[in-house]
């Protein structure tokens, strides 16, 4: 991450445009949801849309992103390709909403029809509910990523211009970005503590951020690179360390208070703790890769993306699979403990039967837990031997 740098103009534009991308992404997800709701009234239209949407997206992207071209495309062709990719993205979002609607409908139907095996239907229904929830987040992050990419390009292009416009933009954008970042951080803090006179705190935060932005613009020239990669590395590592310091059991208690008793609270706790743990393992694996393949690929003239694909990825895929399967095995065992604090699942049922002195059912559930854990351990060991 040390060699990942960008200009201060690019960083400032990214800070300003990422919130815009998040807002537009949420709006795009909302429009897609409204279109999908118009189709879900008829089951035939829902199934047809779910089947045809991926096909349309596939052919649209195949045309918009050809594998090879004999000559550079014209301007009109580029504009048309961008329009096709935007439409394909919109159709794909609608497909995700239609798929979640089908999973909710079929999950409820299977829950009523399968009797004792209705948990399979409830599982499908929960997956559909989770998919419907995270689509908005994924779309917002994707659009924000696109805006961040454009911000970096525009910032680099503007920083190469050695004129008064570039110098003025260098200072002004740094001040505005510093103030905006400080106000956003204060808004996050206010979400936890609910200050009384929040506008005054926003004013203080914006002033401090503007001063820090001005100092940054004086510290770094418009053409001088800013160690953005190293800064992002330490910030993200600090966040993941803070999350990993809190046990999944404590997270489950917090989420039970937040979203209520049930498997969703337990899933959130395990997911958050898993992300923090795997982030540490993944990052350490990337840091410990051999430098030989990197130097060999870079000696052939490969760019950064080609270096990652051909020198980094082959070294990290086997340990990534091993770490993921090991964490999967841990989550299966932890799900029982999570249930004791209201996180749902078989642990919650086991606690109820123990409290009711129903030891026969509790013994059967403990036996089921042992069988599932042993089976998962066997499956994960076989997969590790095969792919790692």
Helix/strand/pairing class, anyone?
A: mainly alpha
Beta-strand residue fraction: under 5%
pLDDT < 50 runs, ≥5 residues = none
**Helical coverage, percent range:** over 70%
N- to C-terminal separation? Answer: 26 Å
Helix and strand arrangement:
Blueprint (H helix, E strand, L loop, with lengths): L5 E2 H32 L3 H22 L10 H39 L4 H42 L4 H30 L4 H22 L5 E2 L1 H17 L3 H12 L3 H25 L3 H9 L4 H36 L6 H10 L3 H29 L1
Helix pairs in contact: 1-3, 1-4, 1-5, 2-3, 3-4, 5-6, 7-9, 8-9, 9-11, 10-11, 11-12, 11-13, 12-13
Features:
388 residues; MetI-like fold; two-stranded antiparallel sheet; 2 strands; 84% helix
Explain this structure to me?
The chain has 13 helices and two strands. It has 388 residues and is an all-alpha fold. The protein has three domains: 160 residues, no CATH class; 65 residues, no CATH class; 158 residues, MetI-like (MetI-like fold, Orthogonal Bundle). It has a two-stranded antiparallel ribbon. The longest helix has 42 residues. The radius of gyration is 25 Å and the shape is globular.
